[in-house]
Amino acid sequence: MVLSVAGKHALVTGGGSGINLAFCRLLLTKGCSVIIADLQLRPEAQALLDEYPHGSNKSGGKPSAVFHKTDVTSWKQLNALWTAALSAFPTVDIVVPGAGLFEPRWSSFWDPPRSAANPDTASRDDAEGEPGHYATMDVNLTAPIRLSQIAIGHWTTNHQQGCLVHVGSMAGYSSAINTPLYFASKHGLHGFVRSLAGLRDELGIRVSCVAPGGVRTPLWADDPDKCDMIDESTVLLEPEEVAEAMYQLVVDENLGNGTIFECDKRATRVVPEYEGDPPSAESGSVKGYYEAQRELYDRLKKDGLKV
After folding, report:
1. How many Cα atoms within 13 Å fall on the side-chain side of residue 282?
2. Residue 187 and residue 173 in contact, taking contact as beta carbons nearer than 8 Å
3. Region Disordered: start and end of each range (predicted)?
């Protein structure tokens, strides 16, 4: 059965750009109102808010979009986001903990936190943190887990059904040395989603995770260390292609039992938990990314890793 999102309400973190912005746009065209959470909005995201203004006098009963500035690493701000969503909408039916980092140098395993022996690092992570943490793991794994907990708490205490769609990656069942925190976070996210599989049949709470290959988003374009890895021969998914796969996870009631939903240029597929086929190489790799591995190995051999 295909479900409808018309008249529903969604909360999407990381909705100010890229995949999550494309998904917000798709939901709105289907009649679903959205609260967009991010640190800032790109111009195209602001244009979407202007197109779907919030408030009964302005929207005339049509779907609307609301922005709430949120740092997802702050549990206090996640709580405030949820309160804002319930203030704007009667309830929240769909939750997408979509904010993510592609292991930028300021939170990278290969750029350890600043210390006396490592004063010139690009890292913003705190070597003396109590507790210590990596921002990449906070954004990609801890924040989605906490937001899922808040959503499930709301749905179960109010005896409501709901839908959680996470943004994973083919990195969640592969590996590469360049960005090990990113790969670890996506492996963890996939494991978390699979662990909640039983909620669909027991409580009507559907939990899934889209797993695209490389996608043409600001995570590549705005990172000077990664944009150079892409050239005219690189095959990347467009955000709209991933948004369509995410929409399928929302409307297809046969999915959502811990589904890991791979998305590449040719097709989508449910990734089996055991003994699955490898992903398509067409959109699952970036040549320049793997060429950078050689440079990393050479640097480690020459200079070591200063921690």
Report:
1. 9
2. yes
3. 112-134
d(CA 37, CA 30): 20
Instruction: State how far the Cα of 152 lies from the Cα of 135, in Å rounded to an integer.
Output: 24
Written out in words, the top-level CATH class of the domain with range 9-303 is alpha beta
DSSP 199-264: HHHHHSEEEEEEEESSB-SHHHHT-HHHHTT--TT---B-HHHHHHHHHHHHHBTT--EEEEEEE-
3-state secondary structure of 223: coil
Q: What does the domain layout of the chain look like in residue ranges?
A: 9-303
Please tell me what DSSP assigns to residue 70.
-
**Mean pLDDT value across residues 31-59:** 89
Residue 75 CB neighbour total at 10 angstroms: 14
Tokens for 268?
Answer: 């989508």
Tokens representing 83 are 């309160």
Q: Is the pLDDT of residue 256 over 50?
A: yes
* Separation CA 12–CA 229 (nearest Å): 29
pTM: 0.90
